[in-house]
Structures are given as C-alpha cells and as structure tokens.
Amino acid sequence: MAKIPHLPFRSKPVSREDFWRTVKRAVRHIPFIEEVVAAYYCAMDRKTPLRAKGIIFGALAYFIMPADAIPDILVLVGFTDDIAVLTAAIATVRAHITPAHRLAAKEALADNDVVVS
C-alpha cells in the first residue's frame, strides 16, 4: 500500500470549521459561493462517484488552504486563483450536483449566518 506523503504546510486534516470560516471570508469575493457549498454537499454524498469527489475535495482543499498561489489576504486579487480552481472543478462535476445538494447548501448558508447577495 502506498504511503500518503506528509504535507508540511498542513498538520491537520481540513475540518468543517475551516470550510465554514473560509466560506464566511469569501462570500463577498466569490459570487457563486452557494454553488461551492452545493459542491461540498455533493462530495459528502455517498452516491457521488469517487472521481467527482476527488475533484471537489481537491478544489475545496485549495480553497481552504492558507498557503496558495495568491494569498487570500490580498484584498482585490486574493481569491482570484481560488475562483479559477473552483470554477473548473464545479464545471467538471456539475452533472453530479443535484437539486438536493443545492437546497442543502442554501439551508446551511442560512444556518451559518452567511448572507449571499
């Protein structure tokens, strides 16, 4: 069995708290944040194919990671690389994101006090 390499920039797995913290920071910068959250629910669905889950989790990990190509703390351009990665991932798996995933996203955003404009 192949050993999973240690990633020095991330000492713990990405948590649900990390995800929601990043969503709350990004909501004003990513116009399709509801679709991002729907993709998260798609990845958590047992019926979603493994390939689609891998694509979504890879994009979400990049979105959440504090160290990426353009740091998110840069006001005007911080989320541009995240937008590109998320757009490509969502376009690739769009057929697997169901109305139930979108409804769960809408409800979760409301439950987490995330206001989508």
From TrEMBL:
Pfam families in alphabetical order: DUF1232 (PF06803)
Q: Where in the cell is it found?
A: Endomembrane system
What are the record keywords, sorted?
A: Membrane, Transmembrane, Transmembrane helix
Give start and end of each DUF1232 domain. 52-87
**Cleaved signal peptide residues:** none
Which residue ranges does UniProt annotate as crossing the membrane? 50-67
As for membrane topology, the entry says: Multi-pass membrane protein
Q: Is Transmembrane a UniProt keyword of this protein?
A: yes
Name of the protein described by the UniProt record: YkvA family protein
Q: Which organism is it from?
A: Mesorhizobium liriopis
